[in-house]
Each structure stands twice: as C-alpha cells, then as structure tokens.
Design brief:
This protein is mainly α and 281 residues long. Helix content is 67%, strand content 0%.
Length: 281
Amino acid sequence: MTEIIKSEPTTIYIRPTNGLAALNLGDLWQFRELIFFMIWRDIKVRYKQTLLGALWAIIQPLMTMLVFNFLFNNVAKVSSDGIPYPIFSFTALLPWGLFTTALNTASRSLTSNHNMITKTYFPRLVLPMASVLGGLVDFGIAFVILIAMMFYYKITPTMTALWAVPLFVVLAIISALGVALWLSAINVQYRDVGYALPFITQFWLFITPVAYSSKVISDKWQILYALNPMAGVVNGFRWALLGSGNGPDMLVAISTGISLVILFTGLIYFRNMERTFADTI
C-alpha cells in the first residue's frame, strides 16, 4: 500500500534588493571572462585596418606635447616647475590620455553594442568597464616612451614615490568609469552625448593642469580647482614620477573623494536605467 503524504504549499516571496546589494557587483566576477573578451575585442577593433596600428598610442600624445611645447613653453613661457617642458607635459598627457580614451569609448559602449543588449542577458556594466580597462594598453605603450624621454633628458624618477604611480592610474580609471557610467546611460536615451563629448573633453583639458602647473592657480581657488578629479590625478602622477609639486595632500584627497562620489552615483544611476536599455536603445 502506498502512503500519500500531503505537504503544505511553499510560498516564495520576491523582493527587490536594497542598499549596496542592489548594485549586484558580484555579477562582474561571474562574467569576468566576458570582460576580458570585450577588452581584447575592443583593442583589435580600435586598430583594425590602420596603417600605423598601435603607433597611434604614441603619435597622439607626442604631437599634443609638441603643440603644447610651442604654445605654452616657447610663446607663453609657462613655468614647468624646473622640469624640461616636454617631460613636464608628456607626463601629464599619459593619465589624461587614459581618461579621455576611456571616456570616449565607454560613453558609446552601449549604443555601439546594441545587438548584444537586445538579444542576450549579461550585466550591462561589462561594456563600459571593458572600454575603460582597454585604454590601459595605450597607456602602457606611451609609458615606455616616457621612460625613454626621461633617459634622454637624464631625469631620474623619484624612487621614494614610485609606489604611488599605480594608485593614481587606478584613480584615473575610477574617474573615467564614473563619468562614463553617467554618459553611457544618458546616451541610450539622448544621443546629444555624442555631440557634446568632444566639447566636454576639450573644456576639461583646459581646466586640468596638463599644459601648465597647478601652481599658477591662486591659493583662494585651489579648493574649487580640486573639485576637478583629474586635477588630483595629474598632479599626483607628476609628483610620483618627477617629484613636481606636493605629494598627497588635502587637494588630492578632495579630488579622490569627488571621483568616488561620481563613481558611486554613476553606478546607482546606471543600474536604475539598465532595465530600460533593451527597450530604448
């Protein structure tokens, strides 16, 4: 004889996650292989069917350095803190180039991959993150040229501060990713971002101490100037490599705090808008 056992029905409650858990950042680890694949794909596409290939990672900052050297060093006679101006400007152009490359590619990462978004599920955060991290390749190539230029000008890096170089590179990535999360999510709904981005990056360049020293800014404006997250990155990168300017101080701390705020709010906004990407894009 078969005995029939009756069980009570199970009720499952589905509730939205709250707090930091709602960001679902753990999904990025589960999809880490996809991130690596997207980074490799972006690098291959970037230089596909180009004559000079990866040399563009060197040509762009070198040409910009030559223009800055003529305008700000030879014509305007801007102070370079006692450092040869080509080294002074090229050192700043490295983190700045990492920031702008990441910003331009990551801001368009969702719209340029609309087929993936509408056909399959994966954390959409993978796309801007892969675009930002892909810029490290160009940064690494240009960094080798900087070392060669320092050898030519007989400039020895400040060995006691080299430990901070990776930290300021990470800070540049954090700044780029935070801004890119905002712009990429907005760009899905409003394509004006693509038109405004060149103006934004050009304006941002002139309010960042790339071609000039931050010491030219009056003391009463220094705190306001530090609200630019890239000001702390550029100043810190110069200090870590060349010993120029001050080390990590309150102004760098302000820039770091602003970068973290932009990243955190960008994550929240991106996650809130993520559910509408497939329908809007």
